[in-house]
Design goal:
Helix content: 25-40%
Largest sheet: 9 strands, mixed
Radius of gyration: 33 Å
Strand content: 25-35%
Shape: globular
Number of helices: 25
Structural class: alpha+beta
Number of strands: 35
Length: 869
């Protein structure tokens, strides 16, 4: 049975049990600040477990793409070293929201595994919660009794709170669970050691295959448990592990989920899988990581230096490192594997096929960039080795390589071992722990329990039609973080405030009490279907009725910018081509940012055309045609643009300005004339094949033109108000260029004369021609002198400093023979000396410069130069 059939049989089985089959949600999480990525099948249903929403169906099943890079049994740096853990994986799941509970969940799990999939019953073990004195919970006898109908008691094992009590987090829904484990060892091994002794012992062939979670409690902030209003079932089965069991392999990587990719890696790299264990690990890492990175990019998360983007970049760089180190891949190659991934998974997850070009281009560019970084890291490691006395490198230096250049411990250890050296791992681990604690402290938030004033949870949004409502507070809680201090989150029964979503910022405004006192609403966000209104203080009497009032001016500015993004999107597709797709946006009162797929920098002519297109639409004063609760099929038939990475419901809201139609939940102008004017202020690349336009409208555009006009008038005044100021400036530029040429000629002649004087100052230091001095010349002339001196004298180490306009510069030249024979590196040398001038720099091994703001440190830098040879 192939993997496609296995997946389909799961869905068909639960459809026969009256479950609604739903599509996987994006792997990139939206509207849930507690998560970066979907890490479990239940994520898209959190609101139902929390009681914040009512599901359309009480029984649901799906296959959910998940991403995990930390947590139980799963650290990113360990993936690939075993045969059954992954970063990206599919989770097959079935859910009950207040419908069936333990009995049906257990019966159906057993039926599917043993009667449909025909797994040998003698290979299965189950665990049930043993209870916890900390929580005053007894053993899960109910689940135990249901399991006894299917399996012998000696195969029903008791599990502790760590293994058999599932919790969403420190707070929230939780409950006991039953895990199903399978023993795929040979009969001989099973006779030697019973599977009961290996369950939950991280044995690669005795693995958990399915977890049935019975959610019936809510964990409060003080740690106490209370019963949920309804009982729920949340199950998750690892698709890759299931395929391993059903296809009779001993490794997830030997199933047809991974073998096509592994064969393509073999073909691309020329390295055979199954011969060398280090190379096997590298191939497994690449086969796993390409899935995680590709799905994240396809769902809208580009690699970056922060947040979710950093996680994706880190995963991709780990794959590149393994290919570089163990498969001898010095050039970009991972992007060449994308067609195989799309061929294998594109039918089940069509977003992968739709975004294939983007995924390929982004990964290719990231590869090229990181390979350059790796080279720099290798040069730094060479310097560290050269400067280390003895055979052990400090853990701090090894961590610098990891933190700055992405070198993992094992790569640093490998290179050092080839030189008969090691590094201090304890020091490395201390640095790593300190970094994690800094990150945890920066992101940490303490959340108190909700104070419930009204059991209702749904907030009715009135903000499309009203900027003011009479509202009651349903619940509130206090949250504390290092970043924002103490804040209160308020949930209202109805609100005019738009909650941050779809790139648009949340509204600001006030809650006005009956006595006229105001509580400032700083922001509004969605969290698992709750509309959270953020305030610095809690109103004096939270039980009263408030006037919730949006800041109308800020809302209007934001709406103008949001409507402008729709017109911009239309303009780009009209002028550049229909390959243009929105890849992200940010809309706020001061301006807008729009990211889109395109392969080249826009020309000035194209930018002018885009601006003209949008402003033509603005001047046409096109009225808004808003379609609420439109069936999504009907919206798509009308030609509405749907955004990638979004999951839409059966009914949608469509925003239409003439022939511009988009699915959108944001706020908009009633007429495009309200935008006043659209002005592009920048266009740039943010990733391979992805461009960014930043623009302004309305008040910001008016201020832009007024400021530019003032600057223009000031320039004219300085030039004595000529009739043609552009012509005057051009003439001045020509004169300036001519003067610069004459000065450069004089400086070059002066520099030539100085070479002879400097040759007299050369000192022989152990066979090295050494010079460290200061000259009152420009940096280019100094460079000319250094190269002429270096060309005349082999084995030369030359350092010349200068100071111009209160800034210091160090220029260093190292002869080729010193670079090759003594490992000297001009870039590393100036970087070290630059600390004396409060600066930094770098460059090539034979020539480099550094700049700083402290000319008084030049003498110290020159003095220290002699210590480096």
């Amino acid at each position: 049975m192939n993997s496609h059939q296995i997946r389909q049989q799961f869905l068909d089985f639960f459809e026969s049990k009256k479950h609604q089959i739903v599509a996987s949600s994006p792997i990139v999480v939206k509207n849930d600040p507690t998560l970066l990525f979907t890490n479990a099948g239940m994520n898209q249903f959190k609101e139902y477990f929390l009681g914040n929403g009512i599901p359309k169906h009480n029984r649901i099943a799906d296959t959910q793409k998940c991403l995990r890079v930390s947590g139980k049994h799963n650290d990113l740096e360990e993936v690939g070293k075993d045969t059954y853990h992954h970063t990206m994986f599919e989770m097959l799941g079935n859910w009950s929201f207040g419908d069936y509970f333990k009995k049906d969940a257990i019966d159906w799990a057993w039926e599917l595994l043993t009667e449909v999939y025909k797994i040998d019953k003698s290979r299965l073990y189950v665990t049930v919660f043993e209870g916890s004195t900390d929580d005053n919970l007894s053993k899960d006898d109910e689940a135990f009794e249901y399991w006894k109908k299917h399996i012998a008691e000696d195969r029903i094992l008791l599990g502790n709170k760590k293994d058999n009590f599932w919790e969403m987090g420190d707070q929230g829904p939780c409950g006991p669970c039953s895990e199903i484990h399978v023993d795929i060892r040979s009969l001989e091994d099973r006779n030697l050691i019973s599977g009961t002794d290996l369950v939950n012992k991280d044995h690669p062939q005795v693995v958990e295959i399915w977890n049935l979670v019975f959610m019936e409690f809510n964990r409060k902030a003080d740690g106490k448990l209370e019963y949920l209003p309804a009982k729920h079932v949340d199950t998750g089965m690892g698709f890759e592990r299931l395929c391993m069991v059903l296809q009779g392999t001993q490794s997830n990587y030997d199933t047809d989920v991974f073998t096509p990719m592994i064969h393509q890696i073999e073909k691309t790299t020329g390295v055979a899988y199954g011969v060398n264990e280090e190379q096997n690990i590298a191939i497994r890492v690449i086969a796993d990581h390409i899935r995680a990175v590709s799905f994240a990019i396809a769902d809208g998360q580009l690699p970056s230096n922060g947040g979710a983007g950093y996680v994706i970049r880190r995963i991709l760089r780990r794959a590149i490192r393994y290919g570089y180190t163990f498969l001898n891949q010095k050039d970009a190659f991972i992007h060449l594997l994308i067609p195989t991934l799309v061929q294998e998974m594109g039918d089940t997850f069509p977003e992968l096929k739709a975004q294939q070009n983007l995924v390929t281009n982004v990964i290719k560019e990231e590869e090229h960039s990181f390979l350059r970084t790796l080279e720099q890291g290798l040069q730094l490691l060479e310097r560290i080795i050269h400067e280390t006395q003895g055979k052990e490198v400090t853990g701090k230096k090894a961590f610098e390589l990891f933190d700055t250049y992405g070198f993992p411990k094992d790569l640093t250890a490998l290179i050092l071992s080839e030189r008969g050296m090691t590094f201090n791992e304890k020091e490395f681990d201390v640095e790593m722990l300190q970094q994690k604690e800094r990150s945890r402290d920066a992101a940490g938030m303490e959340t108190e329990d909700w104070t419930i004033l009204n059991p209702a949870t749904e907030t009715l949004f009135k903000g499309y039609d009203n900027l003011q409502t009479f509202s009651k507070i349903l619940r509130y809680r206090k949250v504390t973080s290092k970043k924002d201090g103490e804040l209160y989150q308020l949930v209202l029964d109805q609100t005019p405030f738009y909650a941050e979503s779809g790139g648009q910022v949340g509204d600001t405004g006030w809650l006005i009490a009956a006595d006229g006192s105001k509580t400032m609403v700083l922001d509004v966000k969605k969290e698992n279907s709750l509309w959270l209104h953020f305030a610095k203080v809690l109103p004096n009497n939270p039980h009263q009725v408030f006037t919730a009032q949006v800041d109308a001016h800020q809302r209007a500015l934001t709406a103008r910018n949001h409507s402008a993004t729709h017109l911009l999107h239309q303009a780009l597709r009209q002028i550049l081509g229909t390959h243009v797709e929105q890849k992200g946006s940010a809309v706020h009162p001061k301006g807008l940012r729009f990211d889109f797929s395109h392969f080249a920098k826009l020309t000035d002519e194209e930018l002018d055309q885009v601006e003209k297109f949008v402003n033509t639409k603005v001047q046409a004063a096109i009225p808004l045609d808003e379609h609420r609760n439109l069936p999504i099929k009907q919206a798509m038939e009308k030609g509405a643009m749907a955004l990638f990475g979004e999951k839409y419901g059966d009914s949608v809201r469509m925003i239409q300005f003439a022939d511009s139609l988009e699915l959108c939940g944001g706020t908009h102008v009633s007429n495009t004339g309200d935008i006043w004017y659209f002005k592009i202020v920048s266009e740039s690349a943010i990733a391979a094949g992805v461009r960014r336009i930043e623009a302004i409208t309305s008040d910001a555009a008016q201020n832009y033109f007024m400021q530019n006009n003032r600057i223009f008038e000031d320039i004219k005044s300085v030039l004595k108000n000529p009739k043609n100021p552009v012509e005057v400036v051009q003439n001045m530029q020509e004169e300036l260029n001519q003067l610069r040429k004459e000065i450069a000629h004089l400086q070059k002649a002066n520099a030539k004369n100085l070479v002879g004087d400097l040759e007299q100052k050369l000192e022989n230091r152990n066979g090295i021609q050494f010079l460290a001095t200061k000259l009152d010349l420009d940096t280019q002339s100094i460079k000319d002198i250094l190269f002429e001196l270096g060309g005349n004298h082999p084995s030369a180490f030359l350092l010349i400093a200068n100071s111009v306009d209160g800034k210091a510069t160090l220029s260093c030249y190292v002869s080729k023979d010193l670079v090759e024979q003594k490992g000297m590196h001009a870039g590393n040398i100036v970087k070290e000396l630059a600390k004396h001038i409060n600066g930094g720099g770098g460059g090539q091994p034979f020539f480099a410069t550094a700049g700083g703001t402290n000319p008084n440190g030049i003498d110290k830098a020159l003095a220290d130069a002699s210590k480096l040879i």
